[in-house]
Amino acid sequence: MTQLAAGLSPTRSAAGNAQKVDARDLSKTFRNIGHGAGADVTEVLKGFDLTIQDGEFVALLGPSGCGKSTFLNIIAGLEDFNGGRLLLDGAAVRGVSKKVGVVFQSYALFPWLSVQKNVEVGLKIRGVPARERHEIASRVLQTVGLEGFTQHLPHRLSGGMRQRVAIARALAYDPEVLVLDEPFAALDAQTREFLQNELLRIWETGAQKKTILFVTHSIDEAIFLADRIAVMTRRPGRIKSLIDVNLPRPRDDSARATAEYGRIRGEVAAILQEEVSLGQ
Amino acid sequence: MANEIQLQAGAIHEIPIREARVTSITLWKWYAKYDRHLYGSFGLAFFVFLWWFANSTGLLNPKFLSPPQTVLTTLIFGILPDGDIWPEIGPSLRRGLEGFAIATALGISGGIVVGSLTFLEKILAPILLFFRNLSILALFPVFLLFFGIGEGSKIAIVAWASFWPIFITTTSAVKGVEQILINAARTLGAGRSYIFVHVVLPAAFPNIFPGIRLAAGYAFTALVAAEYLGATEGLGIYIRASQERFEIPSMYAGIVALGLIGVAINLVLIRVEERFTRWQLGITNR
Question: What are B118-169's pLDDT values in tens digits?
Fold first, then answer.
């Protein structure tokens, strides 16, 4: 990550390539309690460094159980950490930040609220008046292509549509950073590719590009979406390699057929392979 | 003009066909909607028949069990505005509902707090275990001491009895709320009170409601017991006084009236439950 920070002042705060997220030497341990817990503590993250620039799309890739979701939860403010430091816009992360929007793998929609009301929740909490809230939610739902389903309850929708509602809900209050935890992992292949394209379209056409951290275990998904791929080691997790994805934007499915794509795929697969075989 | 004629022509043409179809569909729909009630009425009719049969054949002593038709007429005359049951209903209903309302408010709020704060649950566990298993009859004297012989002690007894099922189901329902929903609300910026009211409560509600309905039953059980112990008016005292005066049909009429109130309250609660858990239709197999 040093090569990316090179030539940039880390304290630059103007729009452009200022550091949005800056994790240094982060560590996280879980205490094991109860029968069959094994060792007393599990080190999930150790020496974890990652810097994400403003407006950058970073994919976090790693073997299962490597702590990538833990790091996401830490950024989201849902979990704390034991050592190191984590800065968001130069300020230490303490609890949930209103600058961060989160999309979960299991959608986590409120099943008793209509699609429209689900999308409005974040705005309601921020005290946005009802009319304005309604307008914003309608607009965001249109962006994700669900304008015809505003009054549906979530369980009436397919998995792909539910995840689009969840994305709309996170986008509605316009967070500067969007973190997504394997959001398309539970979807079928066609829906997954469709939503990858949708996510890129929404992100690339956004008025101000959001900073995105996208956790995934799919190499293809990471290459197709991200500016940069951060590959993690197995547990205790830290960043093993950072790989730039120099595929032109806006990207579409043709990007998947390019030589550069194939080259990166080989590179990332080799790194991951090494980690997985080390773990055996 | 032209429109009117067309409309009329259409009407004349369509009515016979539509009506025939409508009748069969309505009948079928009616059956689909009410078949539960249909079976229920058979069961009820059979029960009343057995009652009547046992009575008229002398299988059960008619002195102790009045025949259904006598009980029914006593009940009907009793609940007329100038009947003798009518003035007893109000006081009982008021006590029952007041106690039940207090129990619902305290049970749900207390259950949410205790259910979501693990340390509090651990601290309170032994005390709660002790009280929830303690016989309500044993506590009567205590309530009398604190709230006196009047309305206060009766309402308190009802509230106590119906508090526990609500409190216990709420506690476990709250613990069953998916953490991911709470996390989602937190990432959306929700504070603790917002999460309680707008996430935990609605998510737990379908599992709280059986406790509320159970509590309604407990409320009226405790109410009658409280009225037995000392009251000047109320269905409980009416039933007991009728037995003491050996007005057996009145006694049964009082029991049936009490039972019907219980049924009515349960029906209302089912409606309320449907209203609050409508979003679950299609998720669960109800």
Answer: 899 999 999 999 998 888 888 888 998 999 888 899 999 999 999 999 999 9
Subunit contact B188:A173, Cβ cutoff 8 A: yes
**Partner residues linked to A48 by β-bridges:** A26
Determine the number of helices (DSSP H) and then strands (DSSP E) in chain B: 11, 0
Q: Distance from A107 to chain B by nearest Cα, in Å?
A: 9
Side by side, which strands form the sheet with A91-92? A41-53, A19-31, A83-88, A91-92
Cβ separation of B187 and A106 shorter than 8 Å?
no
User: Beta strand pairing status for A19-31 and A83-88?
Assistant: antiparallel
Distance (Å, whole) CA B108 – CA B171:
8
With CA atoms as reference, the chain B residue closest to A78 would be B183
Interface predicted TM-score (ipTM) of this complex, two decimals? 0.86
Candidate from A122, A125, A155 with C-beta closest to B283: A155
Could you give all domains of chain A from N- to C-terminal order, each with its CATH number?
Answer: 2-8+16-99+175-279 (3.40.50.300)
User: A106, B180: Cβ pair inside 8 Å?
Assistant: yes
Nearest-Cα residue of chain A relative to residue B280: A112
| Structural domains of chain B ordered from first start | 1-62 (no CATH), 68-280 (1.10.3720.10)
| Locus of tokens 């409606």 | B271
Q: Has this prediction a pTM greater than 0.80?
A: no
Closest CA to A153 of B49, B41, B158, B280: B280
| Other CB atoms within 10 Å distance of the CB of residue A245 | 22
Per-residue tokens: B160:
């106590």
pLDDT digits (tens, 9 = 90+) for A117-145: 999 999 999 999 999 999 999 999 998 89
